[in-house]
Design goal:
The chain is an alpha/beta fold and about 220 residues long. It is about 40% helix and about 20% strand. The chain starts with a helix and ends in a 10-residue tail after the last strand.
Amino acid sequence: MDYDWEGCFNSIQLVLGYPLNDRVQQQLQRYTQYLLEWNRTYNLIGPAAVHDLLSRHILDSVSLIPLLPETAKIADMGSGAGLPGLILAMLSPPSRQFHLYEANQKKSRFLNYIATELQLIDRAHIHKQRVEELHPDSHTYDITTCRALASLEIIAKLSRSLLKPDGVCLAMKGRNAPDEIHIFKNSKLEKYFTSPTIHPIPHNPEGMIIQMRMVSRETGMHP
């Protein structure tokens, strides 16, 4: 596949506000190479995702970076082939610790392989586990992220168990996001979060990030 890496790197730099170093550029290219190789055998992503891997999937993942604090413990729920979790780890300092949850054996094997090959194991911790299997009241994460995982209501339910007080859920969504927000606002989970904020994804007219913050314990509304 002939990808426009120069255009991709330029777009990433516009989002970040600073140049990408050679190491990160090489990591992104090697990640893509390994993903395409594994995909021929294990079908980790679909044909459309292969075609739009840089222009949509990687750049979509990068759009979360400005919303992440400099220091944070982050749970990436349903990481799949590493979008967005592994991409975020490549672009983040060690002070951001990522925990990628993926129950599918083939995908979790790929994530472990990539984290090792790209020397990301110090900041990308892979868990072959469903988020639902974690302790229901762990509350250990500052941020939860996800992409194409489930409805916003289900995402909120999962995040409610994982996030610390004032923790933030960042859910990547498409054209159905307004409908999902409407359903969420009429659910029992709505009281545990602040009102959703929508952040458009600049290069993807149908994409958006929904940001919701857990209500702190001081309000008496935290679970």
